[in-house]
Amino acid sequence: NFIYPSLCHIVAVLVVICLSPYSAELSNGMQMAFLFALFTSAFCREAAKECRRRKKEYIKCLESRVAVLEVQNKKLIEELETLKDISSSKTD
């Protein structure tokens, strides 16, 4: 799943290289180096995509946590005000 699109892309490029009229001019080492570079860039692209997905998920989690804490903070502020009012009425 994670590397599958990259492998399909590599196989397609390999077929193009083999069918290319210039394939005889490329050594096996050059073909392998090209495939390795292609695989590496495809792998990095997939890893970056997954990293962005995880980052979005983390940000959503933080946003929901902030919302919960804001509500909790508002309740505590109201409770503090109530306690201050009770305290000031007792001292009067």
UniProtKB/TrEMBL annotation:
It comes from the Eukaryota. One of its GO terms (cellular component) is ATF4-CREB1 transcription factor complex. Its main location: nucleus. GO terms for molecular function: DNA-binding transcription factor activity, RNA polymerase II-specific; RNA polymerase II cis-regulatory region sequence-specific DNA binding. Keywords: Coiled coil, DNA-binding, Membrane, Nucleus, Transcription, Transcription regulation, Transmembrane, Transmembrane helix. Residues 59-86 form a coiled coil. The chain crosses the membrane at residues 7-24, 30-48. InterPro entries: bZIP, bZIP_sf, Leuzip_CREB. Residues 45-85 form the BZIP domain. It is found in: Nucleus. This is BZIP domain-containing protein.
